[in-house]
Task: inverse folding
């Protein structure tokens, strides 16, 4: 998450490919005065979006057997308060004032925010569970919202995240989280010849200081997978280790004994789609769909061969 800068930039400069896709009516921009809110994908471009998301789920289905769940766009404000989100990143959450809830006055408009990540729904669902397990995987796709105004065409206020959450034994969460991330990187490497990985820090998981940033980098709490985009590198996914932060706050697992840990591996589907399409011949979404199927088949046979 990036702390918003001020003053707010005028608006995004769509890249040439984005203009092309708009002309073909495959994509439309959702904008307001502060910049780009999000994208709507149409026809074959939406098919490629679904193919990418579906491939990520298929990639991990056999080995991790994730339990899938859905998400609401709205999240209880309390959930973010309990993990100190507003103390660390007060400007990121977008507050929701849906008319129906406002009219009903119960629980009241200020009780809701637009969800900034999908894993809070997973943790919320497991809250208070009195069970311990070695390792379980959960997955959800959700529209996420963050207020990080920027002139970049890939920093959206509304975007789609596919997330896998691992919960269980501390060592297993780290080792399996790492191999899951590596498998995703290998899959993306079949679709693009210039995929890179780097360690990152996130102000959310500590104080906003240089010391914390370095400690996080040294501990490898966050790793990102990047694909070139518009002369720069774009983070299309990340692996975050939370230790027992969320399991403790949300009360996941029985009292007593070592706390279970959690990690998440998350992907931004809009970023992935645009960055991969930029490398696809003719920026053709149907061609990208075919490449995704081939890469998925190759990835599965690589897993079975080991
Ligand atoms: N504002 C955004 N617009 C589009 N995609 C995003 C945005 N923020 C995050 N994502 C996508 O969701 C993925 C997982 O979210 P995560 O919280 O790890 O991102 P992040 O570290 O905040 O991203 P960044 O480093 O770009 O600020 C990111 O790797 C990225 O692909
Ligand atoms: Zn997460």
Result:
């Amino acid at each position: 998450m990036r702390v918003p800068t001020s003053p707010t930039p005028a608006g995004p400069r769509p890249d040439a490919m984005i203009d092309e896709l708009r002309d073909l009516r495959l994509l439309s921009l959702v904008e307001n005065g502060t910049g780009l809110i999000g994208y709507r994908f149409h026809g074959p471009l939406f098919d490629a979006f679904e193919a990418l998301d579906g491939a990520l789920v298929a990639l991990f289905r056999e080995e991790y057997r994730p339990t899938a769940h859905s998400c609401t766009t709205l999240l209880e404000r309390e959930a973010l308060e309990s993990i100190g989100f507003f103390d660390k990143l007060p400007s990121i959450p977008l507050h929701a004032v849906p008319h129906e809830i406002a009219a009903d006055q119960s629980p009241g408009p200020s009780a809701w925010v637009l969800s900034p990540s999908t894993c809070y729904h997973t943790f919320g669902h497991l809250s208070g569970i009195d069970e311990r397990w070695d390792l379980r995987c959960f997955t959800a796709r959700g529209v996420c919202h963050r207020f990080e105004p920027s002139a970049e065409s890939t920093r959206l206020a509304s975007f789609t995240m596919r997330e896998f959450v691992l919960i269980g034994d501390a060592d297993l969460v780290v080792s399996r989280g790492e191999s899951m991330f590596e498998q995703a990187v290998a899959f993306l490497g079949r679709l693009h010849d210039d995929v890179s990985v780097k360690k990152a820090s996130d102000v959310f998981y500590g104080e906003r200081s240089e010391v914390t940033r370095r400690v996080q980098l040294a501990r490898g709490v966050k790793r990102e997978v990047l694909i070139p985009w518009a002369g720069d590198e774009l983070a299309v996914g990340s692996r975050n280790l939370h230790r027992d932060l969320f399991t403790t706050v949300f009360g996941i697992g029985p009292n007593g004994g070592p706390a279970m840990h959690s990690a998440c591996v998350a992907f931004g589907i809009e970023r992935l789609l645009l960055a991969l399409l930029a490398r696809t011949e003719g920026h053709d979404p149907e061609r990208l769909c075919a490449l995704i199927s081939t890469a998925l088949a190759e990835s599965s046979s690589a897993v079975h061969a080991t």
